[in-house]
Amino acid sequence: MFKWKSKEQLRQLLCELVQVKSVSGSQAEKEFPDIVVNKLSELAYFKENPGHLNRTYLSDGRSFISALVKKSPDTKKTIVLISHFDVVDVQDYGKWKQYAFDPEKLTEQFYSIKDDLPEAVQVDMESGNWLFGRGTMDMKCGLALHMSIVEQATFGEYDGNILLLTVPDEEVNSEGMRAAVPKLVQLLEEHNLEYTTIFNSEPMFSNFPGDKNNYFYTGSIGKALPGFLCYGKEAHVGEPFGGLNANYMASVITAEMELNTDFCEKVDEEITPPPTNLIYRDLKTEYSTQISHRAVTLFNLFLFERSMTDVVSLLQQKAIKAANEIEQSYMNKATKYSQHTEFTPQQLKVKVMTYEEIYEYALEKYGEEKVEGLLSNRDSEKDDRKRTIDLVDQLAALCNELAPMIVIFFAPPFYPAISSGKNGLISNLVNELKQYTHETFNMEFTIQNYFAGISDLSYVGLNYENSSIASLINNMPVWDKGYSLPIGDMKKLNVPVLNIGPVGRDPHKWTERLDADFAFETLVGLLDLTIEKLFAAHYEVNEQIVSK
């Protein structure tokens, strides 16, 4: 009767999904939804209700899928299952690249050379049934399990509605989820739904190398991408003290920011990793004997509860500290050099400005027409990071009388932190599940406020004040110029979130693998129980409201 319920059926479904090479930005990513739509269309429910299975296209030809199964025409309570179907590239697989999207063959190959694999992989292979391949854990297993839940819902297995949402591009800019949020609001209103929980099944992520703990997540970590545009002073290499090298400026900032624990946040026993550099670039386009006077450095910055207003303030503090170090170092070296020449050192002053501040300065000095004309004439085909850097660079060049200067800005993507750890429904549920897994499977689970791997759950609510969001928007040059968040719809949703997924290892590595026994046996039952409890808890809450 069921297509995707037994361990063997689910394993086969996962392998079929993995075999579609849906690398972010590829043609296969555009074609992947065909597979899911075709499979769901075979279910009797969607033959009778074809309007409940939808494919919505993005402007670039990619698409996301929504599949709604209603318990009855009048049923409102709905659990939303979200997943992503894009995966990262497979260049890291080396000689195994040809098997990266064929889990059964790759797994067979790896077991045949088990002794040559990394020690941690060997240990796992001795103790469990592991399935290798790109996307097995991150996160096509989650999608396969959600498809199974949808199938069961079509047979009336759950006491409420199930809405599946699977999207592209989670691994890059989350364009799929950002486009899907308005669709969730539309479905909410069109079908008179009430979303009780938005439920993700991203795999458990290790908090440190060798971490074998199991986790339930009641939220997802936030992420920003702050950058520093360093605009120095041009000069010939024969007269280096006549200018200021922007590469040197960027190096001082990078040294100040890299792994700086002042940016770490701690909530309960969880702590954000410190910032680390993702882009460091000289902006000269060709070789010359002019010193580099424009450079940029960008950092990954994780967030829990800190407001964006406070983030900007902390970035300013670090930039000012770096600026002072640059000034002092320059003066010390110039003074030493002057002992051997007739050169008289001149004290430098490095300004620190936010993008918002230099934009306002440019408007006042050069007028809106010139400034907006400059900023609108950018290459839309460029990567969002490159477009952002280009815009800041152009604005700084327009205002080069301010140099030397450091301009603070944000580039996409931005993931707001979200957590339902203090929500009574979610808190009670995960504590019950923790006890259940201990008693039933002798497995210990740790409850975490934030999923550390970054996920699309970030976009189903918004806990930031307007002033905090303004600090982000006003300092992100590409906001509403190709990148934005559906802020209004995110606030309309504001639904409790939960992430319970499979056990996996080594996401984004050639040894990516899935614990198949846990995924297709233990987790299947755990997800069913979670959904049952969520619907039952919804009834209890409503009954309490009515009794009051």
UniProtKB/TrEMBL annotation:
It holds the Pfam family Peptidase_M20. SUPFAM superfamilies: Zn-dependent exopeptidases (SSF53187). It comes from the Bacteria. Coiled coil: none annotated. InterPro entries: Peptidase_M20, Peptidase_M20A, Uncharacterised_RocB. One of its GO terms (molecular function) is hydrolase activity. Gene3D superfamilies: Zn peptidases (3.40.630.10). This is Succinyl-diaminopimelate desuccinylase. It comes from Solibacillus isronensis B3W22.
